[in-house]
Amino acid sequence: MITARFTAACPACALTIAEGTPIEQDPASRQWVHLGCLEELRDTRLSEAPRTVCPVCHTVRSVTGACMCEEDA
Ligand SMILES: [Zn+2]
Ligand SMILES: [Zn+2]
User: Mind listing the domains of the chain with CATH numbers?
Assistant: First the structure.
């Protein structure tokens, strides 16, 4: 953790990071975010994992991308 030495925009919450605010670097994107936003950024990334619904059988695909109709085949 460091304190911001300049004003920037936080990519996680889109709010301003004011000078002197505690910030943390996201290791994945190498972007600086608010200290409390780092965890939120990780949560967002997890929920954005490819979990789409199959338009044929309407089941949510598993992490591997498999769905009900692929199991039948
Ligand atoms: Zn933030
Ligand atoms: Zn399917």
Answer: 2-72 (3.30.40)
pTM: 0.59
Question: How far does residue 33's CA lie from ligand 2's centre (Å)?
Answer: 38
Phi-psi domain of 17 (left: phi exceeds 0; alpha: psi -120 through 50; beta: other):
beta
Structure-block tokens of residue 45? 């990334």
Q: For the segment 51-68, what is each residue's pLDDT rounded down to a tens digit?
A: 678 888 888 887 787 888
The ligand placed nearest to the CA atom of residue 62 is 2
Ligand 2 midpoint to CA 53 (Å): 8
d(CA 18, CA 2): 13
User: How many Å lie between the centroid of ligand 1 and the Cα of residue 52?
Assistant: 28
- Report which bound ligand comes closest to the CA of 23: 1
